[in-house]
């Protein structure tokens, strides 16, 4: 993700911020500009943007910003909407009568907004269920109950369901460890599930993409229930790293696709962030991993992205080890995985606006 600044005092601010830490201006994200803007009060709950590209336009806070404190997006003041574009995607929110659920809801929406930013930056069309009831994307954040069936995180025909327990760090870490996964995050879940959505939207009905897809990932018509049972019975093959990005990706071609798609979004977001900060790697020994290229990720070739990605991951993991944290990037990319990532890149380059 790119960097943002307060329009009043130039302080570097994060995408998630609601106030400038230095000058205390209200901050909000304006999706029409793809920018965080600083605002000044314009009366009656309205806020005038100080962003140079906004031409003094007046906005309101999303209801979930002004009242619920879980959003930071803005709506044009004359819009009839009460929820911002990001919040409109959520069809079911957690029961706020339960302690902790508001925090979980905040974490879920925050991860979802970052996902939406990346999809938009890649030029991918993301209609919400509100704008396009038939083909739009919707989210349900559900909770396990004592009497009902367990809530499964997954995707079904544009509806992404997430078990809100995934927003509980202790629960998520327990599952991650029990499943032997090196990486499990809310953002990763959202990226993965949108992979299933875009498969239906972009590949399954287009022979130009479906044939090369099946060559790389296998036949997605393979029995899913059988594959699931076999995976939980036998686990992944010992040499799964030679062909897939994760153990889970070996379960079924559809899961291999969703895992690869999610990984591509991860690479693009991280590279975009490091490029925006002007991060460079200039070791004394130039034969060591070096990074100086600053081509915007949306203009970069796949080869260019990969060339920059490897040095960055060395530095990223070394920094994490110095922090006493596990590797930030606990993956290796075997060449069949790189080929699959290249397919995702080509698809997005072809269909992105
Ligand atoms: Zn400021
Ligand atoms: Zn909102
Ligand atoms: Zn999946």
UniProtKB/TrEMBL annotation:
It holds the Pfam family Peptidase_Mx. Residues 4-96 form the Zinc-ribbon domain. InterPro entries: UCP012641, Zinc-ribbon_6_bact. It comes from the Bacteria. This is Zinc-ribbon domain-containing protein. It comes from Paraburkholderia haematera.
């Amino acid at each position: 993700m790119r960097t943002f600044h307060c329009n009043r005092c130039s302080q570097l601010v994060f995408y998630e911020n609601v106030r400038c830490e230095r000058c205390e201006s209200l901050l909000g994200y304006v999706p029409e500009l793809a920018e965080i803007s600083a605002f000044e009060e314009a009366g009656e709950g309205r806020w005038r943007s100080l962003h140079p590209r906004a031409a003094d336009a007046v906005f309101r806070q999303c209801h979930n910003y002004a009242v619920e404190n879980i959003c930071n997006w803005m709506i044009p003041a004359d819009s009839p909407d009460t929820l911002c574009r990001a919040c409109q995607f959520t069809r079911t929110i957690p029961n706020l009568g339960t302690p902790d659920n508001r925090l979980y809801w905040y974490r879920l929406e925050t991860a979802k907004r970052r996902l939406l930013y990346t999809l938009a930056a890649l030029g991918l069309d993301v209609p919400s269920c509100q704008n396009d009831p038939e083909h739009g994307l919707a989210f349900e954040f559900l909770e396990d109950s004592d009497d009902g069936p367990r809530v499964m995180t997954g995707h079904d025909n544009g509806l992404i369901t997430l078990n809100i327990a995934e927003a509980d760090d202790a629960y998520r870490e327990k599952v991650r460890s029990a499943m032997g996964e090196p990486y499990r995050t809310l953002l990763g879940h959202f990226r993965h599930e949108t992979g299933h959505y875009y498969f239906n939207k972009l590949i399954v009905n287009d022979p130009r993409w479906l044939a090369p897809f099946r060559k790389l990932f296998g036949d997605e018509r393979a029995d899913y229930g059988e594959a699931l049972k076999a995976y939980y019975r036998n686990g992944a093959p010992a040499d799964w790293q030679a062909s897939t990005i994760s153990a889970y990706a070996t379960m079924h071609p559809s899961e291999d696709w969703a895992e690869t798609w999610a990984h591509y979004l991860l690479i693009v977001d991280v590279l975009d962030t490091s490029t925006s900060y002007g991060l460079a790697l200039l070791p004394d020994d130039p034969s060591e991993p070096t990074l100086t290229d600053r081509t915007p990720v949306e203009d970069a070739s796949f080869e260019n992205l990969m060339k920059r990605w490897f040095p960055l991951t060395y530095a990223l993991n070394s920094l994490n080890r110095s922090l006493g944290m596990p590797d930030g990037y606990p993956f290796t990319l075997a060449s069949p995985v790189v080929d699959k990532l290249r397919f995702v890149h080509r698809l997005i380059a072809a269909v992105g606006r």
